[in-house]
Amino acid sequence: MAQITIRQIPDEVHRALKAQARAQGKSAEALARNILRRGLFPADRARPGDMLRSIWKDADFSDASFERDCSPIDPASFE
Known about the structure:
single chain, 43% helix, elongated
C-alpha cells in the first residue's frame, strides 16, 4: 500500500483526531484512513465500475462459447 505524509495539520485538528481515535479504541492513523476512505467513497455514491457491472448483472452466458485463437504471432519487424 502507498504511504502519505500530511504536513502542517493544525494543532486542534491533530488533538481532535487523537481524542476521537482514543474514544473509538483506534489509532489516529487508522481513524485518518477511515475518514479519507469515507470522504472519497461515500456509501451513497457510485463507485468506479458500478455502472459497468450493472450493465452485465443479468446477462446469461451459459450458452456462450469463447474460443482461443492459437494461431502463431508474427514477430515485430523494425527494419
